[in-house]
Specification:
- This protein is of the alpha+beta class and 280 residues long.
- The radius of gyration is 19 Å and the shape is globular.
- About 12% of the residues have low confidence.
- The structure holds zinc ion.
- The site of zinc ion (ZN) has 6 residues, from β4.
């Protein structure tokens, strides 16, 4: 960690800290947050996350933006098919998976089967989803071809953002977030779905999980619609949210159709930080 501190101080004091991002390591297993010496002045922002934010040089911007392959990343592990509806292409951070397995076992005792329907999606995967909706090859809310119905780019992006993230801004990039059991809120309103959701709201926090996309109301005026299936492993995700808040700028969101709308929409504030305050 001493080397990281030294690199950070050197980068910061020469006002070149942003250019140092590309030299940083990918996020490591270390829990420690890099702190600069007291003589170095910290960037001043009003953090939504409520913690004093300091650049953590173990986390790169490329990692925050999902620009890596979970299949070859040392900190990721494949979700066993029996937990993933038979799929062999679901990946999570090792810490997230360990916590999920503990939660799975506890849920099982209560007669509830948790199924990982979606886990890590990197930038490239999110780009396929986003551009599919942008060009109309993938229908918005299973019925609307946005390329035909919505000419205005900002309006089109906002429709997609009801349910899907812009590439580079998804919590699914981080290996901390997963979608469980079904993709409609209706499923969780009755029967098995309600049973599962009730169990999760009462127990998931004991294992470190939180529902970031809670109902949209005065407590959460911005962000994606409610998603009762999306759960986030906070011991890792909290730190990543803070680093995104500190370092990811709307201008950096690029490399896909419609990316130019990120600035006018204010995607970082409205969507990355537009989450359930319990998850901040
Ligand atoms: Zn999700």
């Amino acid at each position: 960690m001493y080397t990281n501190k030294l690199v950070f101080v050197l980068c910061f004091s020469s006002l070149l800290w942003l250019s140092c991002e590309s030299n940083g390591k990918e996020i490591g297993a270390e829990k420690e947050i890099v702190t600069a010496s007291s003589s170095v002045e910290q960037p001043t922002i009003q953090p939504i996350t409520g913690t004093r934010l300091v650049v953590d040089s173990t986390i790169t911007l490329d990692y925050i933006m999902g620009k890596f392959k979970p299949t070859t990343h040392k900190d990721f592990i494949q979700v066993a098919p029996k937990y993933a509806n038979g799929r062999k292409d679901r990946w999570l951070r090792k810490e997230t998976y360990k916590a999920f397995l503990e939660m799975y076992a506890a849920a099982k005792i209560a007669g509830i089967e948790l199924k990982v329907l979606s886990a890590t999606r990197n930038f490239a995967m999110q780009k396929i989803i986003w551009e599919g909706k942008w060009t109309g090859t993938r229908l918005h809310e299973s019925k609307e071809n946005l390329a035909k119905t919505t000419a205005d780019p900002t309006e089109r992006a906002l429709k997609i953002l009801k349910w899907s993230s812009m590439p580079g801004t998804s919590r699914h990039h981080w290996g901390t977030d997963m979608d469980l059991n079904a993709f409609t809120n209706d499923f969780f309103a009755k029967g098995k779905g309600l049973e599962m959701y009730t169990w999760m709201t009462e127990n998931a926090s004991k294992f470190g999980f939180c529902q970031p996309y809670s109902p949209k109301d005065e407590n959460r005026p911005n962000g994606y619609n409610e998603e009762k299936w999306h759960w986030s492993y906070l011991p890792l995700a909290k730190k990543l949210t803070e680093q995104a808040e500190l370092r990811l700028k709307n201008e950096m969101i690029d490399g896909f159709k419609g990316a130019e709308t990120a600035v006018s929409i204010g995607v970082v504030d409205k969507f990355i930080l537009g989450i359930n305050s319990d998850c901040l």
